[in-house]
Specification:
Layout lengths: L2 H14 L3 H22 L4 H11 L4 H13 L8 H7 L5 H12 L4
Length: 109
């Protein structure tokens, strides 16, 4: 099973889970994925950039981590988020800090 298939299977299970917390986490992942797709399609749109920027500052650390990881996968195209990622280096969540560091490492000076 490749990574995409594994992610889809995990997401489907979360969306069908009987407990509300799992369904809520699935909803956050879907929102993060939608923001990633929007950025891939139209990185020039301010409203699309703002959606991702908002995700980096979300109250939920899972959302912040998913967005920082997503930006890391976009390499130099994540340049508009350098200041936000630098701020994320001070995030209370270790995963967010690590994802922000990896994202910044992928953006050439």
């Amino acid at each position: 099973m490749d990574l995409l298939e594994k992610d889809l299977a995990e997401l489907a299970a979360m969306l069908r889970a009987p407990d509300p917390e799992s369904r809520t986490r699935a909803g956050w992942r879907v929102q993060a994925a939608a923001a990633e797709i929007m950025f891939d399609m139209r990185p020039d749109r301010k409203d699309v950039v703002d959606v991702l920027r908002d995700g980096l500052h979300a109250s939920n650390p899972n959302v912040r981590n998913w967005i920082a990881s997503s930006l890391g996968a976009r390499g130099p195209r994540a340049r508009p988020f350098v200041q936000d990622l630098e701020r994320a280096l001070g995030d209370p969540d270790e995963r967010v800090r690590g994802s922000a560091r990896r994202a910044l490492d992928g953006i050439p000076p």
